[in-house]
Task: structure prediction
Amino acid sequence: MITGMDRLTAAVNGTTSDRIPVFCNLIDQGAKELGMPLKQYFSKGEYVAEAQLRMREKYGYDNVWSLFYVGKEAELLGCRRIIFAAEGSPNVGEMILKNYDDIHKLQVPDDLTGHPAFEEPLKCLKILRKEVGGRYPICAYVTASMTLPAMLIGMEKWMELFLLGPAEVRDELLTKCSDFFRKEIEAYRAAGADILVYANAFGSTDFIPMNLFRERSLYWMKRDLQPGGTNGLVYYCGGARMNPVIDQVIEQLGITTFYLSPLDDLAEGKKIINGRALTCGVINDIKLIDWSKEEIRTEVKRMLAAGMPGGKFLFGTLVMPYAIPEENIRTMLEAVYETGSQ
Amino acid sequence: MNELVTATTRKFTEAILDTDRERALQAVQYAVDQGLMPEDVVFRVVIPTIDRMVRSISENFGASLAQHFITSQIAAEVTEQMIPKFKQRKNVIGHVVIGTSQGDFHGLGKRIVTGCLKAMTIDVTDLGLNVSPQRFVEAAIEGKAQVIGISSMMIHTARGETGCLGVRKILQDAGMEHKIKIIVGGAPYRYDHELYKMVKADAWADNGIEAGEVISKLIREATS
Result:
């Protein structure tokens, strides 16, 4: 039986399998799958693992996730308040850094694997590794040092410090976030995650101008990745566009998988990558809430026509909104399985 | 004087595109020292720069969030410095109440919009984060605002009953829809350009800079 890992390996190597790989990122939907509120669902690694396995089995796509919610990283750094919604992703409810003095006091935990906030994700990873390890890629979400401060001090204050604040305070915070990143990615790798989604909105020129991308983003990304390397790493800008920076990311960081934005021109992205890396075409999954079946099929066909020629391609989603009807998820996946067969 | 305005606008715009606050403020200070009137700084340098930014975004989708942020912050700062020096009291164009939808704690977009509105001499009441529909409407009535601005970063806070839909229902029940207009913005609207209709807003804006322009139009509609 062909597994998700077989499909992914074929795509990475530029060969073919039965079909292109499909990464469908169902995170909050796990709660629906187990019939429990989101807060209860995210309280146990066993719940998340069980839902991930069930949903992958039910829909037939190729990946599973160890991600609970993005705010977990803030919890690892001391945040004690997460606000859960009834039908959407949880929010960080408390910024642990309120002023520059808090930045000086911020401490990166020595051992993440022993941290209480990491206990349940580790349980989840252990189960996933036991059940599907080696057969289906296990994904973990790691936020880059440039973007992590948004969760600690808030996006407004981070943008202010980043652009207008004292350079030594900005760099102190970035150094701490980069140190945290290095430990976090190492911990996820050690726990069995194969795919490390390197999330960095500040790695997109939708967020910062090109001069700052060159001066700062590249510098901090190099620092983040220097000890652990880029094996299994996926370049992802949190849904922001990346086509203008792909060349530099390949040349200077050596990253070989690009998870484009739905707003990127997919054909142009593939042309820029030009066989040097794997391209993931990403559907605009907010539209999946309301699109008709026909609209979904048409969009999938359009994307695959742009992305499949030349191989080294997979199909993906962003973080699928909770409100997407199950039949629309099925329609999207069936269209990819059919059109993406090789 | 026209040459001074042109040169200042060029320097000011370049500094903003480079996200260089100091250079932008220096350009303005130099112009004032050379005799440029405070009114000209606001209406012939700052506001045209915002307009130019809007055009550059719509033409090539080129300006980044950081550039929007810097533009709005510096524009607001310069305008606030200049207004007390105006020969005549400024004419306020209108009043907007703004906040993020209930359950949403992402305030950057709102801050960019607020900065631009201040630069355009529009009064702004910032209600902060996680604002209930009732609070939006109460504040708008209390402040005689023509526009309610609702920013949402997450799809469930954009589409939910306690977001724009809730504000619309209250306005509808109170028969105030002609007096108070609603604008929405934030990431979900950039991924679905029809979403603003679904949540029953009067308009949306792709980014904070453009929001200033759209809100000016809504104020005109509400007061006509």
